Description:
The protein is α/β, with parallel strands linked by helices and 312 residues long. The protein is 35% helix and 23% strand. The chain has helices at residues 12-32, 46-49, 55-58, 66-73, 132-141, 154-163, 173-179, 212-218, 224-239, 287-300, 303-311; strands spanning 2-8, 36-42, 79-83, 95-99, 108-112, 126-128, 146-148, 168-172, 187-189, 203-208, 248-254, 263-270, 277-284. The strands form three sheets. Strands 2-1-3-10-4 form a five-stranded mixed sheet, sandwiched between helices. The longest helix is centred in the N-terminal third of the chain and has 21 residues, at 12-32.
Amino acid sequence: MRKIVVGTRQSALALTQTGQVVEQLRELSKQLGIECEFELKKIVTKGDRILDVTLSKVGGKGLFVKEIEQAMFDGEIDIAVHSMKDMPAELPEGLRIGAVPRREDARDCLISRESRGLDELPQGAKVGTSSLRRSCQLQNYRPDLQIESIRGNIDSRLKKLETEGFDAILLAAAGLHRIGWQDRISVYIPAEISLPAVGQGALCIECRSDDEFVLGLLKHYNHEPTALAVAAERSFLARLNGGCQVPIGAFASLGDEDGNPAITLTGMVGSPDGKLLLKETMTGTDPDKLGRHVAEALIGQGAEDILATVRS
Length: 312
C-alpha cells in the first residue's frame, strides 16, 4: 500500500478542486488495481500571504507554487494540484507535469450588481480585477471603465463587490464552476473580448520526475486533448518569458485535420492601459512549435517592446 501525500493551497477553491482530483484518483486506482491511499497537506504560498498589492507588483514567478514545489523536493508531499494558470513556463529540474485533467470552462466572467452584462455597466463603472491581462483587455473594450485592484480568494472578492463600492468584478469562470457558485455569474466574457490566461480552466498535477509509481498512475488520469492545448499555450508563454506580472493571454482548441489533432492557438500581448493590443492566431499539429510561432509573430509586431516596458 503506497500513501500519496497531496500538496495544495488552503483556499476553499484549492481544497475543493484538490478534493475532486483525489476522489477521481482514488477511483482510478481501484479500477487499475493499484493499492494506494491519499492524504492532503495544506501549504501557504507567497501569493497567499501578500494580499495588499496587485499580483504584477508582487513580482517573480511561481507566486502560488514555489513553497509547494519545495515541499515536494523535501519529500513532504508526493504530488501537487495547481491551477495551471499559476504555473511558471519552466518547471524546476526534478519536477514534471504528471497529468493534465479535462479542462473546465476557460473563459473569464463578470459578476455585477443587478446581473448587468459588460455592455450594460454604466459609464465609469468601478470594476475590480487583480489581473493585468484582464485589465488591459477590458480597458481596450471599455476605456471608460474605472479598473481597480481586488485581491483575495473568491469568497472575499465577492464580499468586496458588496462592501467596497464595486459595480462588478472579473473572475475565472472555472473556479466558480468547481466550487458550485456558477449561479453568481452575470455573464461569460467571450475570448474575443478577454482572451484567457495561459492554462486557465485547466489543472496541473505536478510530481517528481523519478517517482515511477506516481507517474504510472497519473498517465491514466491525463486528458490528452487538454494536455496538447495547454502545451501550446505554455510554449507561447515560455517564448515570451511571461508570467502573471505581464499582460499576456492565450487559448488553444483542438479540431481534427487529416486524422491529426489540429491545434488552433490565439495569443495576445497588450499594454497595461489597453491602448495597444496585439493578437495572432495560427493552426498546427505540434504544440511546442505552434506556441513559439505565435509568440514570434507577436514579437514581430512589437510584443517584446511592450513587455520590456511593463517589466521595467
